[in-house]
Structures are given as structure tokens and as C-alpha cells.
Design a protein that fits this description.
- It is a multi-pass membrane protein.
- This protein has 2 domains: 8-56, no CATH class; 65-276, MetI-like (MetI-like fold), CATH 1.10.3720.
- The chain is 74% helix and 0% strand.
- The protein has helices at residues 2-39, 59-67, 70-101, 107-116, 122-135, 142-146, 153-164, 168-176, 181-192, 194-209, 213-218, 227-237, 242-262, 264-274.
- It is globular.
- The two termini are 45 Å apart.
């Protein structure tokens, strides 16, 4: 009697968990499906409740690119995301290796200070950061968009945790060949860190692509707006044209969705390695 009862209880438990996971997935996916549906509906149909468009059209997407310089916004987002990702991965990995392997006085305190900056949100430092950028004359420039967000603590924290677990035997073998810290890092450590560096690059790119507050603050001319700022302004001007707003949202979301589908394994690995939730 006991074994069949336990087996039935386990099946009921799995069914409940599956039902709960299905409900949560539906709640998460429904806004995306609604955006996808609205992007291909015409103005007469957009306020209807049907999820599948009766008259499928691509005019909304073409109209978005006609009314505002959306291609320019996408290019600005791509440029800033790629440069910020390259700087953060390169500089963050070097700083993390130094904090994980080099022995010097104050190493723990220095890492503690860097780690503490993770607890400070961007809105808290927004005004002083803007004042510094303004004093340097970087407002309304690509340098102002890129440099202030290219030196953050998260890549250092993530890669330091990885390097602390890195096998020392491989580095000691490189030492026997006469490699110093720099050659050891470039020739041995970096090639074996590709998966973690790829995960860091993906999460950094997605975060930069979706950033809104800092680009809105530092870029006042439309030619420097990134796609999130441009989409916000578009919604302000054409808020009643929901079919166009949905089309603009879809175009902005396509690169990040495509990147996630291609590299979801690296994204999951980075979250597991950091112990943080995105």
C-alpha cells in the first residue's frame, strides 16, 4: 500500500509543478505575444481582443522607420553595446585575475570596495556622475555614452570567482616555461576562460542594449539617442497609434531575443556562476 501511495503522490506533485510552471510561463510570454500580434495588425484592428491578426501587414514596421530615424537609434545602440561589452570584458577579466592571483597589501580591502559599488544603484549616483561627465565636456558625445558605464564591478566580481577556482597546476606549468603573470594570463588563462568570457559578454551586451536612464540623461541630441530612448520619445509622440508602438517595440526587442535564443546556455552559466538573478 505504501509504494503505490508514494508513487501516486509523486505523480500528483509533478503534475502540480508542471501546471504551475505552465501558468508562470504563460504570464511571462503573453506580453511578448501581444506585442508580436499588435505589430502586424492595422490601425482598425489594433484595439480588438484577437491575438491573431485578421489582416497581416508589415506597414507598421515601415512606418516606424519613416516617421523617426529608427535605424540611427539602432546603430547607436549597437555601437555603444559592442564597445561597452568589449571594454568591460577586457578590463574586467584583467582586474579580476589580478585580484584572484596577485598577492599585495590591501587586496581584500580593495576587492571589498569594488564589490560594495554593486550595492549602489545608478539613480543614486546619476547626478554626481553627470556633473563629472559635464565637467569633462563629454555630454552629447559617444564618449559620454560609453565611458561612464564601461568600468563596473560586476565583471570583476564574476571573473574573480571563476579565477579562484581555476586549476593552479596549469599556471605552474606555464611558470616552468618562464612565463610571467601577463604571458600566463594571455596564453593559458584567457583561452581556457572562453566560455565564461562569452557568458559575461552576452549578459553585458543585453544589459547595455536595454539601458535607458543614463543614455536619456547624457544624450540630448536625437542623433545620439539609443533605441530605448528613441522608442520612449516615439511612444510620447504617437502613443495613440498602438500598432506603431508595438512595431517599434518589436524591432527593438528582436536583437536581444535573437541573441538570447542563440546563446541561452552561456547566459544560464553566467547566472549560475555569479549566484545572482538577472
Amino acid at each position: 500500500m505504501t509504494t503505490p501511495t508514494r508513487g501516486r503522490g509523486a505523480r500528483v506533485g509533478r503534475a502540480v509543478r508542471l501546471a504551475l510552471a505552465t501558468v508562470l510561463a504563460a504570464v511571462q510570454l503573453f506580453p511578448l505575444l501581444w506585442m508580436l500580434s499588435g505589430a502586424f495588425k492595422d490601425a482598425a484592428e489594433i484595439r480588438g481582443a484577437a491575438l491573431i491578426p485578421a489582416n497581416l501587414t508589415l506597414d507598421n514596421i515601415a512606418e516606424v522607420f519613416t516617421r523617426i530615424p529608427y535605424a540611427r537609434f539602432l546603430l547607436n545602440s549597437l555601437l555603444t553595446s559592442v564597445v561597452v561589452t568589449a571594454l568591460l570584458v577586457f578590463l574586467g577579466s584583467m582586474a579580476a585575475y589580478a585580484l584572484a592571483r596577485l598577492r599585495f597589501r590591501g587586496r581584500g580591502a580593495l576587492f571589498g570596495v569594488i564589490f560594495a559599488t554593486l550595492m549602489v544603484a545608478m539613480p543614486v549616483i546619476l547626478v554626481p556622475l553627470f556633473m563629472v561627465v559635464a565637467r569633462l565636456g563629454l555630454v552629447n558625445s559617444y564618449a559620454g555614452l560609453i565611458l561612464p558605464v564601461s568600468f563596473t564591478a560586476f565583471p570583476i566580481f564574476l571573473m574573480r570567482q571563476f579565477y579562484l577556482q581555476f586549476p593552479r597546476d596549469l599556471e605552474e606549468a606555464a611558470d616552468l616555461d618562464g612565463c610571467g603573470y601577463l604571458r600566463r594570463f594571455v596564453r593559458v588563462v584567457l583561452p581556457l576562460s572562453r566560455s565564461m568570457l562569452a557568458a559575461l559578454a552576452v549578459t553585458t551586451f543585453l544589459s547595455t542594449w536595454n539601458s535607458f536612464l543614463w543614455p536619456l540623461t547624457v544624450a540630448r541630441e536625437a542623433e545620439l539617442w539609443v533605441v530605448q530612448v528613441g522608442m520612449s520619445q516615439f511612444q510620447t509622440q504617437y502613443g495613440g497609434d498602438w500598432n506603431l508602438v508595438m512595431a517599434a517595440s518589436l524591432v527593438a526587442a528582436v536583437p536581444t531575443l535573437a541573441l538570447f535564443l542563440l546563446l541561452q546556455r552561456q547566459i544560464v552559466e553566467s547566472v549560475k556562476a555569479s549566484g545572482l538573478k538577472g
